[in-house]
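Support reply, case 0932

Customer input (verbatim):
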Amino acid sequence: MSEAPTLVAFLGGLSGSPLEEMVAAARRAAALDSLERALSTGAFASAILVTDSQEGLTELPAGVVLDVDTEAFHFGRRLARVIDRYGVERVVYFSGGGLPLLSAQEFVGIAQELSRGAGLVITNNLYSADLVAFSPGEAVKKIKLPESDNPLARLLAEQAGLSARPLPRSVSSQFDIDSPSDLAILTLVGGAGPRLQGLLDCWRLDVAPYRGVLAYFIESAAQVLVAGRVGSQVWQYLEKETACRVRFFAEERGMQAEGRLQGGQARSLLGFYLGEVGAERFFVTLAELADAAFLDTRVLLAHRGIEASRADRFLSDVGRHEAIEEPFLRQFTEAAGRAPIPVMLGGHSLVSGGLMALVEYAWQEHDRRLGGEG
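Our regenerated output:
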């Protein structure tokens, strides 16, 4: 058996409304781009694309095996079956649409580290993973198989005894495609692979709201508020890479991976305040604290015990309040659009990789302007 690792990408489970279909198409294109980029390095033995449908997958990159299963999906059981079926000893798993900016050289680095020996798990986020590289593959037999990929790296470390190696926190290791807001940011900052870039060029998403907040990151007198599932690494990045002051509300990190979301245990300080004063006053208060705000709305929804549909969440992310069915989310999104300051709404990626990408792009634009003036 080859010592080189095998790529295992999971893709599926996303369809329905036009925005959901758009994100599904983007994740499909990103997965194919990432597999092709990684395989082009020669650092991987093969690649397996695990999916529930062949739709949009007629032209696979050379070296990719398609594994289709339309049965009821359980992430952990499906991953264990794939590892057993193909005899995978060194696994580099990533979610479809996960880490679309990860470079070929970064894939090589992961493959090289994993090939040095067994007993290792490499991940972009130990508590909410999009990429999990591990060896041996049979380590999955020692863990309680999770329903989603979020806790996989942590379980392999805690229950299978693998040594955890987190990837450096960077734009490429943290940016994920979870919602339409991520696609708008990617449209602005660039860096997508050829298939995904072709879609973004066709969609021509509105990037004006994101372009409008760039100046705050490089202005020492400005203040930006960030709230949601944000780790200390993002705080450190913002402290080091922005000129502005940052007001930080880190709440409910890992709520899905640790079961607090499903158990109705998620709690948010901002959520308590929102419940006391209502949406209009909430955003007036934010305007007294900052010049722009980035909100992970999934935490606020979880705090209130609201199970808004994915279609509604996506509509909220792009500010289309009139089409949202869930009453609270519709009112909240409308109030955000009327707020005295720019308010960016989204999920976890917005306040992690998306935010980091915007900061990096803000400085690139700043440097280009200076170069033009010179």
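We compared this against your earlier run and they match. Two observations from our side: The mean pLDDT is 93. The chain has 15 helices and eleven strands. Please reopen the case if you see a mismatch on your end.
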